[in-house]
Each structure stands twice: as structure tokens, then as C-alpha cells.
Amino acid sequence: MDAIVKNFPVLDDASGRPTQKEAEEAVRVLLRWAGEDPTREGLRDTPARVVKSYREIFGGYDLDAEDVLGRTFEEVSGYDDIVLEKDIPFYSHCEHHMVPIIGKAHVAYLPNGRVLGLSKIARVVDIYARRLQTQEAMTAQIARAIDETLAPLGVAVMVEAEHLCMAMRGVKKQGATTLTTTFTGAFKTESAEQARFMAMLRGFK
């Protein structure tokens, strides 16, 4: 079954984004709810620190993957085989519990006359990781952004990650890894291309 890809809107002040002061007050409320005293010395500056860190951690909402992928290169000397960028580390946050997802992404595509700068692929992974996410949606979003912007012959994305919402709470199963994949174009219609993608991943272990 194909994953449902959600396009998250970029928030701005006009859309009703709270001010920094309001965000800091929300952190103080959570501290009080947890049983802490936000006025004590060790917590006095915590709300400002949390808001500052959240601005970085969730910076993906202010970025557009299509802008990052806009520049491509056509001078490839006839290269037309798989381009694979493997083991791209990322940190995201579960949209259900707002605790970390820690993992790595493997992204491949079959060029159709144009290629991407390798740093662009890693940046696209970061854009979608730095949002509240489910792993399934993030996998599909990365594939869709590259597929629609570059128009390659196919895209393959595999994401493997540990979800701390499962390790820290609930069933408390540390070390469990979740794998998700999305394939487009030739990677979806031709089993041989999927097999080559998987073989390349295994070959780099």
C-alpha cells in the first residue's frame, strides 16, 4: 500500500504561531505540571533554552525541499546507473509522543539526464526529519520530493530507526529497529532494480 504523503505548511506569524514569550510560558506550565518549580535556580533559564532548541530541532517546517533540490547538473558524461547515498544519519521526533526517533536513511535514484549534488539528498532528509513525524510518512516524503523535483527514472528510499517512544515508555523494548521503504518509477515496477538497490545496501555493510 502506498504511503499517504502529507505536505506540512510552513508556519509564520500570520498563521497564528505563538510568540517566543508564549512558548516559554508553555514550558513553565509543563514544568509545573511535572511537579517542578520553574523559578528555582537550575530551571530559571530552561524555558528559553527549550524554545531555542525546539527552533533548531523543528527547523524543517521553515524549509522547502523543492528549493533545496532546485539546482541539478546535466553534465554527467553519460552516467545513467543508480546513485545511492547510504547511512545518512538523522534525528526526528515522534508526532504521537514528541520523543526522539534516531536512525539513518538510504536514498537512491536512477538518473534521467540530470543528477543532484550529494549534499542536497542529505539536506532533504534533514528537512523532513526536523518535523514531528511518523517514519512511514517521512520515508514517503523524501521519495516524493526527489521524484517530483528531479524527475528521475525511479527513486528508492529506506529508513531504519529506533523510536524512543517504544524504548522509553509503553512496551520499553530498547534496541528494536523499524524499517520502511518507498519505491517509485523503475524501482517500483521492476523487481530487478529493487533487488539491485538492496544488494548495494548489503554490499556496503
From TrEMBL:
Its EC number is 3.5.4.16. It comes from the Bacteria. Zn(2+) binds at C94, H97, C165. It holds the Pfam family GTP_cyclohydroI. It catalyses: GTP + H2O = 7,8-dihydroneopterin 3'-triphosphate + formate + H(+). GO terms for molecular function: GTP cyclohydrolase I activity. Residues 24-201 form the GTP cyclohydrolase I domain. Pathway: Cofactor biosynthesis; 7,8-dihydroneopterin triphosphate biosynthesis; 7,8-dihydroneopterin triphosphate from GTP: step 1/1. InterPro entries: GTP-CH-I_C/QueF, GTP-CH-I_N, GTP_CycHdrlase_I, GTP_CycHdrlase_I_CS, GTP_CycHdrlase_I_dom. Keywords: GTP-binding, Hydrolase, Metal-binding, Nucleotide-binding, One-carbon metabolism, Zinc. Belongs to the GTP cyclohydrolase I family. Homopolymer. This is GTP cyclohydrolase 1. It comes from Sinorhizobium kostiense. The lineage of its organism: Bacteria, Pseudomonadati, Pseudomonadota, Alphaproteobacteria, Hyphomicrobiales.
